[in-house]
Amino acid sequence: MVAKSELKFIRSLQQKKHRQRHGLFVAEGVKLVTELLDSALPLQAIYATDAGLFPGATTISERELEAVSSLVQPNKVLGVFHMPQPEPLHFSDWVLALDGVRDPGNLGTLIRLCDWFGIGQLLCSPDTVDAYNPKVLQATMGSIARVRLVYAPLPEALQGCGVPVYGASMEGGAVGAETLPAAGVLVMGSESHGLGPGVRDLLTATVSIPAYGKAESLNVATAAAILLYEVRRRGGGPTQR
Amino acid sequence: MVAKSELKFIRSLQQKKHRQRHGLFVAEGVKLVTELLDSALPLQAIYATDAGLFPGATTISERELEAVSSLVQPNKVLGVFHMPQPEPLHFSDWVLALDGVRDPGNLGTLIRLCDWFGIGQLLCSPDTVDAYNPKVLQATMGSIARVRLVYAPLPEALQGCGVPVYGASMEGGAVGAETLPAAGVLVMGSESHGLGPGVRDLLTATVSIPAYGKAESLNVATAAAILLYEVRRRGGGPTQR
């Protein structure tokens, strides 16, 4: 049995303000918790319905787990982890930057895409959804453990970065056309608002995805998938796995 | 005011069995309804909070609309449309085929992707989520009006189609490597189950997306985005817009 106060504390971490005050976040489910235990993130506490499956775990009943879980179907284990310490960005490889991406599912998918393409750093504008939001974490499928996130105003973070900054835009040059450098920044805006003016001023060039049909736009995650594929195919970076 | 029995009928169309019995589906919101009104799909009835905005609309109160809506925030208008008549597939251009894609948001995003890349035909296995599910419709952003869907067992529908059939697979050849034909079929499986054995037997080749990082897989919509981009870039089909 877990103390009421402890359960209350865990549940409070579903809110961003409490996560930020304590520097802690909650991960749930066997896959996500296992990936995070394998990462460098320090563990604060772990609770499992079968404590034997996770070393150091406190036993939590199914009912207690349901009471604190953000999942529709709680899955055996819940870990409280410390958020990583902020580190400065380095621009020796490609960096993905997001300007105001609000949808948790999209951010989770974008983190997973970064992990697939070996993009180790994701820069998020302050109005991008918090990556430790439970819905984002679930959508990352564990990739949150391998992609470093930095929340900062994009103009400040990218000013003087020393590499070309490409903005995804409906009016950009088709991505297949030009050569891409070995290192750079790709900025994606939200579907509804596009790129903010402070970001537009920083761009070296804009890129777009060739359209053949009549859809007005692409979802931000599917557009990023194509652009990151091109960044790796024609740009530079790690060797293919 | 709309009759109670009429409201009840509209609400019943949120369920697949009622949609299929009547051959009708419900579309909501200004954007989606406007796109469908511009399409060839026959309208059965239209209800709007401001009937002057949509010719032929019956006035519905905000309260009545909330009572029948599947949206968290109902948006002014609701249309009841006839489902399109089934037509046979033709294989003169690329066709996207889905094997057991269950997530409504993913199917909606895939329909939107087809529309972006001018893929006019989407073949879905019978266990793929119903495209007239309200969550799918919303995620299509109106593209449902321009992509023709066929639900049929994939082995039957693809047997003897006369064009190469490519399956997306983690073990496939990298998509950037080989030449793609002007017409073909691309089959995507679900993330959890991959391609079924009946489909595997039909494949001309498998294709995969080069991986550079450590993510185990990509979301089906982001994977399809990259593969359809390659199909149009290196295969054939309509001219770029």
Terminal CA distance of chain A reads 45 Å
CATH-defined topology of the largest domain in chain A: Alpha/beta knot
Strand order of the largest sheet of chain A: 7-6-5-9-8-10
Radius of gyration of chain A (Å): 19 Å
Low-confidence stretches of chain A: none
Report the total helices of chain A.
Answer: 9
Major sheet size, sense and barrel closure of chain A: 6 strands, parallel
Structurally, the number of domains of chain A stands at: 2
The greatest interface between two protein chains, and residues involved on each side, is: A-B, 42 and 42 residues
The mean pLDDT of chain A is: 92
SSE order of chain A, as H and E?
Answer: HHEHEEHEEHEHEHEEHEH
Spell out the CATH superfamily of the largest domain in chain A: SPOUT methyltransferase, trefoil knot domain
The oligomeric status of these chains comes to homodimer
Residues in helices of chain A, as a percent range: 25-40%
**How would you describe the shape of chain A?**
elongated
Judged by helices, strands and strand pairing, the structural class of chain A is alpha/beta
Query: Under the CATH scheme, which architecture of the largest domain in chain A would be assigned?
Result: 3-Layer(aba) Sandwich
